[in-house]
Amino acid sequence: MRKSYEHCIRCTICVENCPVFKVNPQYPGPKQAGPDAMRFRIEGEKKVDSWISLCTQCRRCEQVCPHDVKPATLILQAQMEYVKYNGAKPTQIIFSNFHFISHLASFFAPVANFATSLTIVKKMMKLVGLRDDIPFPRFSFRTMQRNKVKPEQGKRKAVFFHGCYLNGNAPDTGRNIVRLMQDLGVEVLVPPQVCCGLPALGNGNEKKAKSFAQKNAEIFASKVEQGYDIIYACTSCGHTLIHSYPELAGEKGKMIAENSWNIYEYIEKLINEKQLVLKLKEVKKVVSYHVPCHLKGSGKPYPALGLFHSIPGIELHVMDDNCCGFSGSYGFKKKNRETTERLGKIAVKAHLESNPDVIISDCGACRMQIENYTDVRVCDPIEILKESLE
Ligand code: SF4
Ligand code: SF4
Prior knowledge:
Blueprint: H1 13-16, H2 19-23, H3 30-38, H4 60-64, H5 71-86, H6 90-96, H7 98-107, H8 109-115, H9 119-127, E1 156-161, H10 163-169, H11 171-183, E2 186-189, H12 198-202, H13 206-225, E3 229-232, H14 235-243, H15 245-258, E4 260-262, H16 263-272, E5 286-290, H17 293-296, H18 304-309, E6 315-319, H19 337-352, E7 358-360, H20 364-371, E8 377-379, H21 381-389
Parallel strand pairs: 1-2, 1-3, 3-4, 5-6, 5-7, 7-8
Helix pairs in contact: 3-5, 7-8, 7-10, 10-11, 13-15, 14-15
Bound molecules: iron/sulfur cluster (2 copies).
């Protein structure tokens, strides 16, 4: 059972593991921002501790706390209270509604991609608090929803939760995931769906997060009742489905949490249940695996590792000590630029030590951030697995 802030024994282990505390002297760290400050937070009182927005919600503090206190959850509550009493900033409104922006931008993809590269548009973005020094993610008209992979019958049935990034920004990767799962004998459906709700939560809009979660829970719970499993590849979406949906979407949310599988966890399950035998071909590559914080924070062994260790010829380096610093919408905000940049450079420097041919990461935002600091190829792990299966 989750212990309350009163159970904090002030060991400071969480502080030692907080990436933001390491690089930003303005941030007091998870102990002070979480359990310590909770003692003074009075419900209904106008919130003044604006530095709580410096927490990226990477959740590394929760993973290491020996007393099961949840500093990131306490900080998230305080972030939402702060927005409630002080109003949402333009960037918070933009990212809470990213689902709609992504739909609109992908519908007008060539125009949106051209517009976000213009200096005048970048200046306008800067005025509302966005960064103008990094490329804005490119949108694709051929989203996963618009160009669906035709379902094929399989021994197992699954529905794919793709999230906003795979749908609007990296749909080819998303379709590769669906095709690969179908090749492994899983019938995969891609039902209509909305954002998982994480950007709304992280930007202080619990009401919107709940409305997204409830819509998804309605769609996916009915599929679970029909015998489908839920699979996901984006580790931030997965973290939200499993850890936040029971609270955001009640009984149906619990059903989602109990039936959602990371794709690699799902492949391993099929192998263990003797429904699948994988023949993996040699891939002679040095691969550096950037483990996203939300995967590390799930507290489980990394699901892709078993498979990747079985690929002959691969030299795999598992990098889970560093947060890339981007954390979804956090890295796009002008006020977080320095923190994000410092963390990104530390993470990429660590990757480059092994002289990798390719850097892989399950998270689209981590991949975008790593690409900002290196010319080494950066891709989703599925691309390497696909190469080994071809
Ligand atoms: S969630 Fe991450 S950034 Fe926030 S306090 Fe915990 S470790 Fe630090
Ligand atoms: S929140 Fe947990 S890790 Fe952090 S100081 Fe308290 S007991 Fe230690």
